[in-house]
Write a structure and sequence with these properties.
This protein is α/β, with parallel strands linked by helices. The protein folds into two domains: 341 residues, no CATH class; 84 residues, no CATH class. Helices cover 41% and strands 15% of the residues. It has 13 helices and twelve strands. An eight-stranded mixed sheet has the order 2-3-4-1-5-6-11-12, sandwiched between helices. The protein has a two-stranded antiparallel sheet with strand order 7-8. The chain is globular, with a radius of gyration of 24 Å.
């Protein structure tokens, strides 16, 4: 029997997972991630299906789909194969620029590791000197040399496989420019294809480790292409934009009554308002895990002062965005937008405000998960809190696995979803917010 009335719209969301450093295999990261974040189906059977991926440009990749509502498609942006031919020279030149800076230019949370590194270098140099001049240590020197050779072999595999990715991507030297360009271009192309497919109502981007830096770059560039694109412009007072700008500045200035919860809700409301005006931006959330952006002053700039200048110049987006200051009689107004006059062809009477080119986090929430590193040495050294560097709108979530050995060693960096530990999975599930239907109302 045919049904009457309008059928209920089924909503579909996309999650793009960007893997971190190392010789990753296609689909390994995404399979482990999806298996961890999806619940066991009540009806039994598999948690997810594996579908063809029509949007990526690799035959190695598939789309993983859940079995419940809202329908969720998980994509992996796989970039590891682009980093090839890494040599110790690439790593050494990058590390040397980090090590030779003065202690005052090293971020506080990295100073213990920086000082320990220099102590080890000094100890190695002293040991080598003693081995040359003291015959009594000849046998010990042979043993040390053998151990050093073995250690060097191990380091060659580990360092080239993992740290080499970071050295190549984060260092804008001439020989790395094409690699950086290729990694970003393919990620940008994937996000744009997802947004333009017409299949999705919402997109979530998840970046682990170096993948979080890549995610930040991808979002920045895609936003710059579409932030002025209002495909269904109508005369509007844009109340959500006004509320977001007020909530953001209250949060930045720590004004009385400022609320992080109010700001996050204002971000969602603004995203909906932009969608109603035809803006193609679908990304509601960025989720970063163990992100090296915690060391932005060291990795993205020459020091903290340089980082702040580039943020004020809107080269590096912040959350809340850098304000546009409008002088008015009796004071000033701080906004994240500017007025567009006569910008819509025949509808020349429509005047709307447009978020500026670094304003993506006005309508995109940012959650950052990290294992705290005790004393700057024990835990996930790669990650850390981001609000200090990118603004109070970033939601920092310190996580624990429930295993002290994992929490206080480098294993923490790969434990954000592995092992299905409820203690660390809960904040990740909260950040993803996959079951929330508020995005579609």
């Amino acid at each position: 029997m045919p049904t009457t009335g309008k059928s209920k719209k089924r909503h579909t969301q996309a999650v793009i997972v960007i893997h971190g450093m190392g010789e990753q295999r296609p689909m390994d990261t995404i399979r482990g991630f999806v298996d961890a974040v999806l619940p066991e189906p009540e009806q039994g059977g598999e948690k997810f299906f594996s579908r063809p991926d029509p949007l990526s440009e690799s035959f190695e990749l598939r789309v993983l789909q859940n079995r419940s509502q809202p329908r969720t498609h998980f994509y992996e942006y796989y970039w590891a194969y682009k980093v090839s031919g890494t040599k110790f020279g690439h790593i050494w030149s990058w590390l040397w620029t980090l090590m030779v800076r003065s202690p005052a230019r090293v971020p506080v949370q990295l100073r213990p590791l920086w000082m320990l590194s220099w102590l080890l270098i000094a100890a190695a140099a002293l040991s080598a000197g003693l081995g040359l001049f003291d015959r009594l240590t000849q046998n010990a020197s042979v043993l040390i040399s053998g151990a050093s050779a073995l250690l060097f072999g191990l380091l060659q595999g580990v360092v080239l496989s993992y740290l080499g990715d970071a050295a190549r991507y984060l260092s804008p030297t001439t020989e790395n420019i094409k690699l950086r360009q290729d990694i970003r271009a393919d990620g940008i192309r994937l996000l744009k294809r997802i947004q333009e497919s017409g299949e999705y109502d919402r997109v979530i981007v998840v970046g682990h480790s170096l993948g979080s830096v890549i995610a930040y770059d991808i979002l920045k560039h895609v936003w710059q292409e579409c932030y002025k694109d209002y495909r269904k412009p109508v005369r509007s007072s844009q109340p959500a934009l006004a509320q977001l700008e007020k909530a953001g500045e209250d949060l930045r200035r720590r004004a009385r009554g400022a609320s992080f919860k109010t700001y996050r809700q204002a971000q969602l409301d603004l995203w909906k308002e932009l969608r109603q005006l035809g803006c193609p931006w679908l990304v509601t959330d960025l989720v970063t895990l163990g992100s090296p952006l915690a060391h932005a002053a060291l990795l993205l700039a020459s020091d903290e002062a340089n980082l702040r200048v580039r943020q004020r110049q809107r080269e590096l987006p912040t959350n809340p965005p850098e304000p546009e200051i409008e002088r008015i009689k009796g004071g000033e107004i701080r906004r994240y937008s500017y007025l567009v006059w006569d910008g819509f062809g025949k509808k020349r009477n429509i005047k709307l405000r447009v978020l500026h080119h670094a304003g993506l986090f006005a309508c995109t929430r940012w959650s950052n998960l990290f294992f705290p590193a005790l004393g700057g040495l024990f835990g996930d050294l790669a990650g850390g809190p981001l609000a200090t560097w990118f603004g109070p709108g970033v939601r920092d979530l310190a996580v624990r696995s429930g295993n002290l050995f994992v929490d206080r060693t480098l294993i923490a960096h790969t434990s954000y979803w592995r092992g299905n530990a409820p203690a660390s999975l809960k904040p990740l599930l909260e950040a993803l917010d996959l079951k929330n239907t508020a995005y579609y109302r």
